[in-house]
Amino acid sequence: MPHMRPLDPAFPIDRQLAVEATNVVLVNLFTLDAADEDTFLRAWQDDAAIMKRQPGFISTQLHLALGDSPAYLNYAVWESTAAFRAAFINPEFRAKLSAYPASAVASPHLFRKVAVADICVA
C-alpha cells in the first residue's frame, strides 16, 4: 500500500470524503524510487481499471513529471464525492493497494472547479 501524505495536512482525504459535492476532481501526486516505476505503473493500471468500472467515474489521466525524478500525477473526474467515496472504500480497490511498491507515497486531494470570469467555467 502506498504511504499516504496529505497535500493539506489540516484537511486530509478522509475529511474531504465527508464533504458532499458534485463534479469533483481527484488530484493524486505519487512519488517513488526510480527502481520501482514498472511496479508502480502496473499497480496504478490495475487500480484504474477497478475505478473505471465504478458508478460515477468519468475519466482519469496519469501524468509523468519532467526530469529525472519519478513523480506521477493522477487526475480523475468523478460525478460526486459520494461516488468517489464508494469507490475509495470498495474492497476490491482496497485489496489492490498492497501491490504498490514500498517506496510509493500518495498525496490525494479532492477539488471542485471554480468559475473565473472570462477565463474558466465551474
UniProtKB/TrEMBL annotation:
Cited InterPro entries: ABM_dom, Dimeric_a/b-barrel
MF terms (GO), sorted A to Z: monooxygenase activity
Keyword Oxidoreductase listed: yes
Coiled coil regions in record: none
Short name of one Pfam family: ABM
This protein's record includes keyword Repressor: no
UniProt keyword annotations, A-Z: Monooxygenase, Oxidoreductase
Positions of the ABM domain: 24-114
Domain of life: Bacteria
Annotated protein name in UniProt: Heme-degrading monooxygenase HmoA
Taxonomic source organism: Bradyrhizobium macuxiense
